[in-house]
UniProtKB/TrEMBL annotation:
<dbReference type="GO" id="GO:0016832">
    <property type="term" value="F:aldehyde-lyase activity"/>
</dbReference>
<dbReference type="GO" id="GO:0003849">
    <property type="term" value="F:3-deoxy-7-phosphoheptulonate synthase activity"/>
</dbReference>
<keyword id="KW-0808">Transferase</keyword>
<protein>
    <submittedName>
        <fullName>3-deoxy-7-phosphoheptulonate synthase</fullName>
        <ecNumber>2.5.1.54</ecNumber>
    </submittedName>
</protein>
<dbReference type="GO" id="GO:0009073">
    <property type="term" value="P:aromatic amino acid family biosynthetic process"/>
</dbReference>
<feature type="domain" description="DAHP synthetase I/KDSA">
    <location>
        <begin position="21"/>
        <end position="257"/>
    </location>
</feature>
Amino acid sequence: LANRMFHPEDSVIDVSGIPVGGKKVVMMAGPCSVEGRKQICRIAKEVKDAGADLLRGGAYKPRTSPYSFQGLGSDGISYLAQARKETGLPVVTELMSAEHLDEFIDQVDLIQIGARNMQNFDLLKAVGRTRKPVLLKRGMSATIKEWIMSAEYIMSEGNPNVIFCERGIRTFETYTRNTLDLSVVPIIKERTHLPIIIDPSHAAGDWKLVESLSLAAIAAGADGLIIEVHDDPENAWSDGQQSLKPERYAQLVNKAKAIAQVV
Ligand code: PEP
Ligand code: MN
């Protein structure tokens, strides 16, 4: 169903009025974690002013350690909904369990399937039974074929609204958190008709690298970027080291849009 052979034109996915795919690049931004109502509403305004089209923020967090902050859960979802009400930005957040699907259907515009759940087939089938747009992150050790098959799991249940997201893969390199694989942009575009966006933040693990990776992604033909932005990265509850401050994010958006004009 994702195959370009049977669907030659690019699919454009409508995320609550924001088209993903097609001509324009879409900018998603926000903190790694929702830390409170005030925090997410404040950052939502900052990223909107900087040029973002969608707000990100994790409420259910897939942390490596069970002793790390696990997210605000259901409260986090309602704070995101509040930020959306105040700014008009649609929201994207990660669904970790089908148990929470009802709450996501009501309050979330784009359901993120995280890298760690890319092959959680029951979860994929559950979101496949809805019509909600799904942001399908690439597993950190998944091949491109496996990733496309995960999209098929969602689509074969009846949901055609899938957006790919490359977020870096595990390699022998340890300098960066993951290795950003930009070759997936032309490959996914050749093999499928679905949009693909890039997450340079989780690939790099370091805010200093985020701008160059972002600009390279747009030059390669990506349909958008999802970037971690925090207004107090030093004190962020998760992923502060890879989060951009709003002012730097605003500069990045301007440069990315300029490059998008010529590709
Ligand atoms: C995230 O977007 O906050 C996240 C946990 O991403 P990933 O699943 O790519 O690690
Ligand atoms: Mn994060």
